[in-house]
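It would be a great kindness if you could assist me with a short task in structural biology. A protein sequence and the structure tokens that stand for its backbone fold form the material at issue. I should value your view on which stretches of the chain appear to form regular backbone elements. The record follows directly beneath this note.
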Amino acid sequence: MTTDRSGGTGPGGLPLQSARTRRFSLGVPRQFTVSPDGERVLFTRTTGGADPVGRLWLYEDGAERMLADPSAVRRDRADGGEVPQEELVRRERARETTSGVVSYATDADVRLVAFALDGELWAVRTDGGTPHRIATAGAVTDPRPSPDGTLIAYVCAGALRIVRSDGTNDRAAVTPEEEHVTYGLSDHVSAESLGRPRGYWWSPAGDALLVARVDTAMVQRRYLSDPAHPERPPREVPYPAAGTPNAEVSLHLVRVSGGRIAVRLPVAAGADHPAGTWTDPRFEYVATAGWDTHGPLVSAQTRDQRSVHVLAVDPATGRTRVLHRAHDRAWVALRAGTPRRLASGALVVPAQPGGDTQGLEIGGRATPPGLEVREVLGAVGDRVYFTASEEPTEIHVWSCAAGSSEDAPVRLTGERGVHTAAVGGPTVVLDSRTPDGQTVTVVRNGATVGRIAVLAETPVVTARPLSLSLGVRELRSSLYLPSWHRQGDGPLPVLLSPYAGHGLQLVLPVRSWWAATAQWFAEQGFAVLVTDGRGTPGRGEAWEKSVRGDRLTAVLEDQIDALHAAAARCPQLDLGRVAMRGWSFSGYLAAAAVLRHPEVFHAAVAGAAPTDRRLYDTHWEERFLGHPDVEPEAYERNSLLSEAHRLTRPLMLVHGLADDNVAVAHMLRFSAALLAAGRSHTVLPLSGSGHLVTQEETASNLLLLERDFLVKSLAR
């Protein structure tokens, strides 16, 4: 087996390049906003594949123009502030790896743009002028202009404040009554597990806001410290672990002129709420919120996640009216971009149109069976744009108009790959990832009018996956072999490198960081197999929800079945030398693999592994395992601490000490259980790292250390 640290491409090779480019994310345009007339496209992007500072850009009249450069606006200032803790938390939830302009918001016509830099409020116009700083009462998080651009709201020290866009009349719209209360921010569960990062929304008239109030007084506290700097105080984090109290989230209608009304959210679901071993019909989660031309629109989910109500809110009284009810005996899946109301008032909600397909209901009409809807991207008038799959490994952009049954969905993308889009007026910005790379195409009235440059670096290792459909369940898989390996060269040790968990696919025909990493491990002398099994998205309700109550058995079974089926097709795979590596859920899976199936797996690297399921958050964990006080056997069956005595294979545990998502306690408790059982293992703590490792030296050397551990562990 080769031990070429460069990957065959020079000093550092792919590990250093991947770390330096933040997994090839730098230089990639993102966060597109298209003006209602389709003439202007806003986006953020760094200036190159190794530049970590985000800038704000405008595409107009076929050309790009930089609107805001943090280094330029800071050129004559030495008193820039620090990024507030609320903004750091927001970035961690969003897995943001850049600095500078990392997010922005606009008025309705996309003429005024507001953004925060190091806690300061800045604004710039798209029709000319330079960025200008707006004085505020304190450090700024999530600034958002009113639809007419005359006002800008922002969060400061837990209060929602409003300032005129000319910098005058800064005042508090609503302030926290107690220490643990905030207005205008999302709570941990909503941002991390529900996909709702925002905490306030302007009315179309700009005269009021729909504002989330979050009270974390009853939420358990965690204290994160940096052991490498014992002189620094710990950071207090309200974290609702499974079975413990959630933050209390309520909604309020706040008038710009003064005064507010509480939204009267329903307390609990009714008699149509599904029964179960554990049933909790209380509406504890504000899943989505917004304000369109028809009024505020909210969806609420019960604590047990089996019911979701879509609610219209009366902006004058705060009373709510149920527009749609959804129920499921496992959990009601929250589809990104829904619910949504079209210009006519037609409602867009998730639906099951027939068979096992996860589709949409658009104005009472369902998308056809067999079209697996992934996300609603937006709407222009009564035409809805969404992503969907006919084959699980490809995701395309589609559109469909609310109307007669003869209006069938139309596919807008053709090339094999993963596509998404942003829309406005007659313009669609197609963001396409294929095996050849990434392109961003501006389409107006059905014709291509330009491209937005993708400045990301090309991986120095070219991925060469074999696309496979394995076993009786036709498990979608990618097999990566060394480019230098020839038939007759001898057997190859096998490295399984899946994610295999809820909400994420890796077996996709795209040039990606994970494919480059898999190929790099292959160049080190492994056959690398990546498989999306049961529990992953894209293959229907039953497939995705088959892990309810047991997050490991079926998932491991699929990995083993794929391994054996791949070996039957490719006899160069050595089933006597098999390892698994992974991070987060797949780190948990890797550790479980060597504990439960040492006859199959001979070594594992488990990064940021949530080994004790009781330590993870309420919404995510209770979705799969229920309440730990009611279904304790599910948590026992899915946690690894009680199985530590089974370890007989080499195992490396890796964890960031600053991880506020999967706490380092997972690794420490598991390591302690292994030690108590007398089981040798390797522990690699990453000082200063969170759930996403971004430090260049740490990230690049981590891959090398994993490689060396696996080579040594599988050596004969």
About this structure: The first strand starts at residue 30 and ends at 34. Confidence is low (pLDDT under 50) at residues 1-6. The CA atoms of residues 31 and 43 lie 5 Å apart.
